[in-house]
Amino acid sequence: MGFDELRNTVRGRVLTAGDTDFEQAARPWSIAVTQPVAVVVEAADVDDVAAVVRYARGAGIPVVTQPTGHGATGGVENAILLRTGALNRIEIDPAARVARVGAGAQWGRVQAAAAEHGLTGLAGSNPVVGVTGYTLGGGAGWFGRKHGWASNAVRAFEIVDAEGHPARVTADSDPDLFWALSGGGGDFAVVTGLEVELFDAPGLYGGRIMWPAERLHEVWDAFRTLTSQAPDELSVWFQRFQFPQAPEMVALDVAYLGDPEAGRDLVSVLDGIEGAVSDTRAAMSVAALGTITSEPTDPSPSIGRTELLTELTPEAEKIILGESVAPLVNIQVRHLGGVLSRATGGAREAMPEQYLIYLLGLGLPQLRDAVNAKIDALVGQFGAQITGRKPFTFLAPGESAAAAFDATTIDRLRAIKRDRDPQNVIRSNYPVLG
Description:
Layout: H1 4-9, E1 14-16, H2 22-26, E2 39-42, H3 46-59, E3 63-65, E4 80-83, E5 90-93, E6 98-102, H4 107-115, E7 119-120, H5 131-136, H6 144-147, E8 154-160, E9 166-169, H7 175-181, E10 190-197, E11 199-200, E12 204-212, H8 216-229, E13 234-241, E14 249-257, H9 260-266, E15 278-279, E16 282-283, E17 302-309, H10 314-322, E18 330-335, E19 355-362, H11 368-382, H12 407-420, E20 426-427
Parallel strand pairs: 2-4, 3-4, 3-20
Antiparallel strand pairs: 1-2, 5-6, 6-10, 7-11, 8-9, 8-10, 12-14, 12-15, 12-16, 13-14, 13-18, 17-19, 18-19
């Protein structure tokens, strides 16, 4: 199929197989995933986005939008891959406490801009994750226990609809579409910008403290103690690491949104665990939020899976602590709860589960089978202790959007999809009709 008409219509680059930069442009964040798209369009502006949607509608080709490529599944055969990374404006209105951002804006830059005014967004752990995809899927980050889902902080969406018409969507102007976009994923329109609420950032105390694996049970006990009594302002994540060619390590990551001295006191129990090999805890700016976990900021091959636990039972504890990490590189347990378990609004309902387990391995060809087998074995051991639900932004290739919602919600999302995009032109990484 030729795309000369598309090339002559848009200002941004249009790349097809054989073009020098095509493979790199089509590559998702996890390079363990292959994206067999027909063409990549790098939109220069909203007019380009509208033109691509109109072209796709007429040609009967689906459009998959990826600002950064996080969350890609590979299910994009013969689609148009629409890159919106160039739509990266960031405007902070400190008086209104809102950020107006383009579809390509990344959380690290938004946090840096908001921090200048003593404000913060509801960012995740990685500074190069895009605001748009994260928020469309709900978005549960460091400050979710205090302020809830990132999707609940949206005040307006700038979109191009399935007919190629730009529009601004609010809860008043289009309640159904606003509801669907607020945590239901990107299946209903191409989002070109968002207006999101910002929150006061009176201070931040955070960082990672790491010990050799010999301290595993002491660190776990501290994690259980901290999370059993943590105020909503405090989030604590437990980590077991098995980096290649290195001994196993155990760590706790902490973030306290408030007076740093109060945060220091809240986690002072960690000072009593001897043998720490590193400790980055300190008062910090919310602009540095992404440094707490120091996650990779360049594409890499990875295989991950997430499960939710209502509580940490003795049986779950034995699995988390008893298994060796290898051939995985990380077994992570995040404390949830707080407002995440209470707040509703939009398609992203309250999440009663108190803990999230994330299993991560390298997606290198020589390791894939072993990593997948290890993940399957661990999940199988949890059995009925895991609820089967997933946060939308933690879905993995092969999983369905239906796993992120209850039956009533997914039925409503599907009805809105059929009404707003009957030709199924716009496809998210995890389609609600899939």
